[in-house]
Amino acid sequence: MDWMFVLKLFVTLLVVLGAIAVVLGFPGTFLSWLGLVVFSLATRFAEISGWALLGTFVGCLLIELADNLLAGILVKRFGASKGSMLMAWVGGIGGAMVGGFIGSIGGFFGSALLGVVGAFVGSYAAVYLWERNRHKRPHSDAARAAFGTVLGRLLGMALKLGWIGWFLSLVW
Q: Are 103 and 113 in contact (CB under 8 A)?
């Protein structure tokens, strides 16, 4: 088996793990970028130059910043409080863990699928409960704020996954 093919498979694994991290709410763009670094070092910068690595790293920083700004803008636009951003993250992590645990009955794919679903449900529920209980907002306002948080998370995730997909195109 050709070593270049094995290298590309390894880099693809890192990129996919980065994509999974993005879906779970972590900055997985940097894990995917690490795959580019490994690829560049292994090919002695013949395929991807050092300048391209620097540019993609700066791109990762900008994408992460854009994700957070997008979430913040949508949280404000949909009327959520500042604490809702933190609650969305905490709820997303908690929901992913609970969903992954429940999904483990169905094996790896069940765990992964319910982990992602749990992240969105947990994020929504945490913001809704935060707005309802902490800020005494009516149901419609709390639901709107929770929806805005989830929408911001989805748009940021789409942005990051598009960036990570481009990384794969650089390797293959």
A: yes
Q: By the 8 A CB rule, do 120 and 93 touch?
A: no
| Contact indicator for 48, 57 with CB cutoff of 8 Å | no
* CA nearest neighbour of 83 among 140, 146, 139, 171: 146
Please tell me whether the overall predicted TM-score, pTM, comes out greater than 0.85 for this model: no
Please tell me the distance from the alpha carbon of residue 13 to that of residue 24, in angstroms, as a whole number.
17
SS (H, E, C) the chain: CCHHHHHHHHHHHHHHHHHHHHHCCCCCHHHHHHHHHHHHHHCCCCCCCHHHHHHHHHHHHHHHHHHHHHHHHHHHHCCCCCHHHHHHHHHHHHHHHHHHHHHHHHHHHHHHHHHHHHHHHHHHHHHHHHHHHHCCCCHHHHHHHHHHHHHHHHHHHHHHHHHHHHHHHHHC
Per run of 10 residues, the mean pLDDT along the chain (length 172 residues) is 89 92 83 93 91 94 85 82 85 86 83 83 93 93 91 89 92 88
What is the structure's pLDDT at 108?
75
Whole-number pLDDT of residue 92: 81
